[in-house]
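Async update (no meeting this week)

Hi team, since we skipped the sync, here's where things stand on the single-chain job. The sequence we agreed to prioritize is pasted below, unchanged from the tracker. I ran it this morning and attached the output directly underneath so nobody has to dig for it. Comments welcome in thread, and please keep replies under the output.
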Amino acid sequence: MARAKRIRWLPTHFIVAGAIVVTCFLAGCRTEFSGRKTFRTVVIDPGHGGHDTGAVARSVAPEKAWTLALAYRVRDRLTRGGFRVVMTRTTDVFIPLDTRTGISNSQGNAVFISLHFNYSPNHAAKGLETYYYSAQSASLARFLHASMLRLPWILDRGIKNRGFHVIRKNTFPAVLIENGFLTNDADVRRLSATGYLDLIADRIYDGLIAYRGSAPVSEEQ
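Output:
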């Protein structure tokens, strides 16, 4: 993507990112991770948006639409389960990577999940990939990936260590999940099936509960 392309509202997002950092500094926000058994906030990051379409495949909606549709389902499932959910975007807008991590790092005690769908010129490529960067994120990646593998007919492409910006620049445990290939007919049929995105949301919730050890709602009963 050419950096020279002018987006009239792009500076606004950098102002927002700066405001988040300044506000957090003035308020004395805690940005350290207090422990996996105590967090209540989950930052959901629907990948891409606006002019950044993400993966584009023939006869399929662009990746940015899939990530947002899934993010809403994950948000609703986690909220019902007692989590506080923050989304880095809620509409089809472009959010710079630094703004996404700024939103996450301004939280008091949280985990971060970036949602994506894959692309390959090899249309036979399919399945699930989960990425992490820091050592503190490895356990979160394992629990989420294991839970996701309970989905029907899904191919395990493994857990991988990579330096993607949104997980590398995160203070908190952070993972990026590639939920299937938009260039693979079998993956697209599965993802398009009624209720399948809801199943993904359920598996993400279950993975977080397994990672945390208990549901947040149990602390208030």
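Quick observations from my side:
The mean pLDDT is 87.
The helical segments are 10-27, 63-80, 97-105, 135-148, 165-168, 185-192, 196-212.
Reply here if anything looks off.
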